[in-house]
From TrEMBL:
This is Amino acid transporter transmembrane domain-containing protein. It is a multi-pass membrane protein. Residues 54-450 form the Amino acid transporter transmembrane domain. It is found in: Membrane. Its main location: membrane. PANTHER family: AMINO ACID TRANSPORTER, AMINO ACID TRANSPORTER TRANSMEMBRANE DOMAIN-CONTAINING PROTEIN. It comes from Steinernema carpocapsae.
Length: 460
């Protein structure tokens, strides 16, 4: 192997006196021209540890994280866009999301090589990119890091709110059709609060691991059964809209972006791979996982809308036949989502707990940690009670947080890294500005459309 090349970097400090994430110098190994062209020379093998992931395990985790409750609302999204336009747009949006995810991974390894680090999270990728940027911006790294953290915080708690509404919808429909019990959705949310509160007081996720694995199995089995039902009960294409109204496209965008709820786990999974090249290469974990997820998205959305038609509900589980077999699937989904709730809840709570351990005296830390957990669950319940319409909630969270994290921030990071690498060409400018504008368009129109419909629902 050739000798490494040293990239000199000036040490910096943030205005509040914190050390910058930029080191004094970074060592980047030389590589062959092909690797240099593809950027793979930055992807160095990591030391194995007990938490290391093989490509197969990383693929399973990534696929599972992306196939959440948003998948079951995709038939409604296809109603908004139309059968054929929806199919085209789901491929377009998924392709752009994949490209942006790849940007984040490449930039992460550039920043790690620049700063002499082995791994990095999403928020610190943003910070490192800002601090590598132009002088008028590079002292704002800490602010932008926290901006990403807040966005991720909102996204994860938003998922938890959606889970509340999803479980209440399915529990309400199941008990109404099977037992004739007719309770308001708000009451079902209050009932579900008790088991959710119990599981969220468990701080060690290892205790939930067996239940999580079982939930993943039953979730995928239930999705397969629903998909089979769709394919065997299709309507004529003449009975559904081929192209939807332009005014409904923002809601389609928000729903699709929400379905990509695994964007926050990209870097945690990549950081645990011994050979990160296997994550990013053309036939690697990221491309293969997204291809699988896209296939499932397109199949469920297309055939779900074609099977149910314009009467499709916020979640297609509500469109299943009244036979006991299909009704039980609703309860299976409730159980699966109940186990998934504390996993989504763990991400924001982990950050809050770290703050508590730094700022609160040791003897009071446990008390405050559990108070925050109880308060966090109540917060998601209250928001879910305020906006009990699943489709609108999904579109709002997807357009606001999903578009920000998956479409707007990645090209912005790429621009700053290109600046630091002195490869900021007209082509790079054009590509990244297009991606930012695409993300902003979806962010603004999707958020506005969801908020407008929510306001209309309350006023009506």
């Amino acid at each position: 192997m050739s000798q490494p090349v040293e990239i000199p970097i000036s040490p910096r400090r943030t205005p509040n006196g914190e050390e910058s994430v930029i080191a004094d110098a970074a060592i980047v190994p030389r590589a062959d021209p092909t690797e240099m062209e593809e950027g793979l020379h930055l992807f160095q093998d990591r030391r194995p540890n007990p938490n290391s992931l093989t490509p197969e395990k990383a693929t399973i985790h990534l696929v599972k994280s992306m196939l959440g409750t948003g998948l079951l609302s995709l038939p409604l999204a296809f109603k908004h866009a139309g059968l054929y336009l929806g199919l085209i747009l789901v491929f377009v949006i998924s392709g752009i999301c994949l490209y942006c995810m790849r940007q984040v991974v490449y930039c992460a390894h550039y920043i790690c090589a620049r700063n002499g680090r082995e791994m990095i999270d999403y928020a610190n990728i943003m910070r490192g990119a800002i601090e590598a940027g132009p002088s008028w911006l590079n002292r704002r790294g800490y602010f932008f890091k926290q901006l990403v953290n807040v966005n991720m915080f909102i996204a994860q708690l938003g998922f938890c709110c959606v889970y509340f509404v999803f479980m209440a919808d399915n529990a309400q429909d199941f008990f109404l059709k099977v037992a004739g019990i007719d309770l308001p959705k708000s009451v079902w949310m209050a009932i579900l609060l008790i088991p959710i509160m119990i599981v969220c007081l468990i701080r060690n996720l290892n205790y939930l691991a067996p239940f999580s694995n079982a939930a993943n199995f039953f979730y995928l089995l239930a999705v397969a059964i629903i998909t089979y039902y769709f394919i065997t009960n299709l309507k004529s294409t003449s009975e559904v809209a081929k192209v939807g109204e332009i005014s409904n496209l923002p809601l389609f965008f928000g729903t699709v972006m929400f379905a990509f709820e695994g964007v926050c786990v990209i870097m945690p999974l990549e950081n645990r791979m011994e050979r990160p090249q296997q994550f990013i290469q053309w036939n690697g974990v990221l491309n293969f996982s997204c291809a699988v997820v896209l296939t499932v998205f397109a199949t469920v959305g297309f055939y779900g809308y074609l099977a149910v038609g314009d009467s499709v509900h916020d979640t297609v589980t509500l469109d299943l036949p009244e036979e006991p077999f299909y009704q039980i699937i609703k309860i299976i989904f409730v159980g699966c989502v109940m186990v998934s709730y504390p996993i989504q809840f763990y991400v924001p709570m982990e950050r809050v707990e770290k703050w508590i351990t730094r700022k609160i005296v040791a003897e009071k830390q446990i008390r405050y940690i559990y108070m925050v957990r109880v308060g966090g669950v109540f917060l998601t319940l209250c928001v879910a009670e305020l906006i009990p319409h699943l489709a609108l909630f999904i579109s709002l969270i997807g357009a606001f947080s999903g578009a920000s994290l998956a479409l707007i921030i990645p090209p912005f990071i790429d621009l700053l890294c290109a600046y630091a690498q002195r490869r900021l060409t007209v082509g790079v400018w054009a590509k990244d500005i297009f991606l930012v504008c695409f993300g902003l368009l979806g962010f603004l129109t999707g958020t506005y459309a969801a908020l407008a419909d929510i306001a209309k629902t309350f006023s009506g």
